[in-house]
Amino acid sequence: MRIDLRIWRQPDTDSPGAMVAYRIEGVQQDMSFLEVLDTLNEDLILRGEDPVAFDHDCREGICGACSLVINGEPHGPERTTTCQLHMRAFRDGDTIDVEPWRAASFPVLKDLVVDRTALDRIIGAGGYISVPTGAAPEAQTVAVPKADADHAFEHAECIGCGACVAACPNGSAMLFTAAKVNHLNVLPQGAPERESRVLDMVERMDQEGFGGCTLAGACATACPKGIPLPSIAAMNKEWLRALRAGRSTADRPGR
């Protein structure tokens, strides 16, 4: 296959960028998209040119580091991570546009690499259980209803890639934040910080400059792990519950 790539090249955060065209011959259908970029970079290095900077780590669809917008779609035309996207999804002679995540809260560092530490700071605001638990307890020590366990596991699948933000017309991080709130708030281990968690994480999300959610639904469509759109409604319910709990505490005598 012959593939024409148009790739966003930008030397650093403060410099302007532009799409640059490259032609790659001999692409095999079973190659992953990242392997095609590897091939391109090998050629660029041999020619003494600067290789294309892009993020990757596990290349097994686990970490979500391979964050690319391909032909306008986060991670490309299939519902998977970029590293698991194979060239059989394209045809001989195709022109493919490759861009970084586009969001105000994800500044471009170089080429296709963006700074996604805003998501880490949302996690740091409350997406954890702070009580030391020591060694892993016996699985049956704390009974968890199956519905709650299923709900927690469904949301724990979020890998924090940021595709939801890149897909959202508002650049919202609501689906990501909802996944991190919901998978802890339904479990007994997360109960002591249930109210503070959702309030602190939503507040931090707003501080990071993410856009507001209008339930466009593009986030859930782009999510490679299938985090469902109703997760946002569930988090909103938790947020309102936490607000009511805070008000009732403040209204108690002696406070």
Features:
7 strands; 8 helices; five-stranded mixed beta sheet; 35% helix; 255 residues; Fumarate Reductase Iron-sulfur Protein, Chain B, domain 2; Ubiquitin-like (UB roll); elongated; alpha+beta
Question: How would you portray this structure in words?
Answer:
The structure is a single chain. The protein has helices at residues 33-46, 117-124, 146-156, 163-167, 174-185, 194-207, 218-222, 230-250; strands at residues 3-9, 18-24, 69-70, 73-74, 95-99, 108-110, 113-114. The protein has 255 residues and is α+β, with helices and mostly antiparallel strands. It folds into 2 domains: 3-110, Beta-grasp domain (Ubiquitin-like (UB roll), Roll); 117-250, Alpha-helical ferredoxin (Fumarate Reductase Iron-sulfur Protein, Chain B, domain 2). Strand 1 and strand 2 (18-24) form a beta hairpin. Helix 5 crosses helix 8 (230-250) and helix 6 crosses helix 8. The longest helix has 21 residues, at 230-250. It is elongated. It starts with a strand and ends in a 5-residue tail after the last helix.
Topology:
Layout: E1 3-9, E2 18-24, H1 33-46, E3 69-70, E4 73-74, E5 95-99, E6 108-110, E7 113-114, H2 117-124, H3 146-156, H4 163-167, H5 174-185, H6 194-207, H7 218-222, H8 230-250
Helix pairs in contact: 2-6, 3-5, 5-6, 5-8, 6-8
Helix and strand element order: EEHEEEEEHHHHHHH
User: What characteristic shape results from the CA principal axes?
Assistant: elongated
The CATH C-level name of the largest domain is: Mainly Alpha
Amount of beta strand: 5-15%
Per CATH, which architecture of the largest domain?
Orthogonal Bundle
Distance between the termini: 71 Å
Number of strands: 7
Number of domains: 2
In CATH terms, the superfamily of the largest domain is: Alpha-helical ferredoxin
In what order do the strands lie side by side in the largest sheet?
Answer: 2-1-5-3-4
Fold-level CATH name of the largest domain: Fumarate Reductase Iron-sulfur Protein, Chain B, domain 2
- Round the mean pLDDT to the nearest integer and report it: 92
